[in-house]
Amino acid sequence: MFKGSLVALITPMTEEGSLDEDAYARFIDWQITQGTEGIVPVGTTGESPTLSHDEHRRAVEIAVQVAAKRVPVIAGAGSNATAEAIGLAQHAERVGADGVMVVTPYYNKPSQDGLVLHYTAVADATALPLIIYNIPSRSVIDMTPETMGRLAQHPRIVGVKDATANLARPLHTRRACGAGFTQLSGEDHTVLCFLAAGGDGCISVTANIAPRLVADMHAAWRAGRVAEAIDLQDRLLPLHDAMFCESSPVPAKFAASLLGFGTPTVRLPLAPISEGAATRVRAAMTELGLIG
What we know:
Elements: E1 4-8, H1 21-33, E2 38-40, H2 53-67, E3 74-76, H3 82-95, E4 99-103, H4 112-124, E5 130-134, H5 136-139, H6 145-151, E6 157-162, H7 169-177, E7 182-185, H8 191-196, E8 201-204, H9 211-222, H10 226-243, H11 250-258, H12 275-287
Parallel strand pairs: 1-2, 1-8, 3-4, 4-5, 5-6, 6-7, 7-8
């Protein structure tokens, strides 16, 4: 159900910093028409840590309404408070999301046993399939493949978004969790390597800006057109670099604004994009023909 080119959606905002519902809805529809195969609203790329609960829930509702079952919606439901994660997951289920993604709790530094208890509690509280989001560079905690294997026994914990950039990890995860456990990359630069190691797709930041090219790369890989997929990977490299030249999602929101989707506004403590980073983003988009 969850495979191929998925997008870790940004959350477009007005210059005053409120949720730009019109730009957000247009952006989601554009993503789908450009070939994106799954929508992931209000993950960390969607600035979930600085959205209010009402804004978070509203963003999920809009994503479900606009997607209209054309592609699956995996709603971000992460929190370092288990009760809060449960509440977000239950809301996603009520409004019609197809799954939830739950990031490993940040700051608390739970043990591996704590991670098992956290994810089991969330999965027990909803009927939706759950994707684990493992991103130790931001959460500090790294869920081990052994722990993931324990969680994979739960009927509703169905996969992982792996942002470790460790290309041995999908091999160990498959060994621990079985071939049926969905593995989605969370790191744009290494997508094809991840797929070659047994991955099923990617929840991408770059797909916010170049959804057609990213979707074409996944389609080429699945069809066995490896040379074509590698060529698209190489073409996308400068844009991948640009998307992470400052803290994500700052470059992606600036790039989306150049495409007509909202403003570059991000919530504090993220700072506005620097002049040098803006120049780099424009250059990468121009090279790909995304802007003139």
